[in-house]
Amino acid sequence: MKILVINPGSTSTKIAVYDMDKELFSKSIEHSKEELAPFKKISDQLEFRKETILKALKEAGFDLSEFACISARGGNIHPVPSGTYIVNEKMVQDMLSLKYGAHPSNLGAPIAYELARQYNIPAFIVDPVVVDEMEMVNKITGLKGILRQAKDHPLNQKAVSREVAKSLGKKYEECNFVVAHLGGGISVAAHRKGRIIDVNNALNGDGPFSPERAGDLPNVSVVEMCFSGNYTKEEILKMLAGNGGFVSHLGTNSLKEVLSRIEQGDEYAKLVYDAMVLQISKWIGIMAVVLKGEVDGVILTGGMAKSEKLVNDIKEYVKFIAPVYTVAGEFEMKALMEGALRVLRGEEEAKTYE
What we know:
By secondary structure, the chain is α/β, with parallel strands linked by helices. It folds into two domains: about 1-130 and about 330-350, ATPase, nucleotide binding domain (Nucleotidyltransferase, domain 5), CATH 3.30.420.40; about 135-320, ATPase, nucleotide binding domain (Nucleotidyltransferase, domain 5), CATH 3.30.420. The chain contains 13 helices and twelve strands. It has a seven-stranded mixed beta sheet with strand order 3-2-1-4-6-5-12, sandwiched between helices. Helix 6 (about 155-165) crosses helix 13 (about 330-345), helix 10 packs across helix 11 and helix 11 (about 265-290) crosses helix 12 (about 310-320). The longest helix is centred in the C-terminal third of the chain and has 24 residues, at about 265-290. It is globular and about 55 Å long. The two termini are about 30 Å apart. The model has no long low-confidence stretch (mean pLDDT about 95).
């Protein structure tokens, strides 16, 4: 029972083929700036990316007519509960319209939908970026009409939580975790008994600053910048997500480069790095409070969790809260497979997007 997994990113499309839970094939199809330049909007890349996937599968000797389903990364739609969703026309329209936000992951479901219809098999998405299980008390801000939003890394966060729970001899639904996904954007979440009840908006909202995002900022300073006449709305939004964090301070989004500068005696690089470590740790503490101190473990995951120095520096701040588990890297492809497989096995019922 073969499953095709599709995960579109900014400059690549990752695909994998599984036979049940056994990986048979994986490839990251790279897309150069020149290849993507003709496309004005992300949604315009649909046909191009679909064809690159079909070409890669053909070269690897796979026939989609032999597949049981397709599982794709879900992009920006309206907020939904956690779970596996069958891809339908409304979902595809919402993602391609970009009305809930533009992100390469918006291409996952539309590509899967077209291929699935062609080969008469189901297509799914699993725990899209807009999964919203936040309790209302955690959404309230000091201004009526402005609510905190959940935009984070639920697919990877829940996948690593299940792995750690399994290592503890428990089910994910029996555990309380604080999970920090450390990447270009950083999300820190409180997981209580299988639900993400609080998390920062890692895309363009609150939370610690990261290699590319500004995170929490003093309100008045931001307002003054907005009305200074020196910046357009688009420029300010890019400062918050894309040109914030390390990029703003140090001109790079590379943790490796920042650590290299520190080793060479760059004191400002060290100051900025130390500040990021402290902010991540503060947010882990915030989420421990959300869980009222009942924390089975703090989990560090994402690409930056591969840095032993970063992990150890965060541990120094948070090890008093609970045991710290490191699950470095991203496990989105496996999580997409597992979500589809749970449906195929009858362990979970696919939800309908409405």
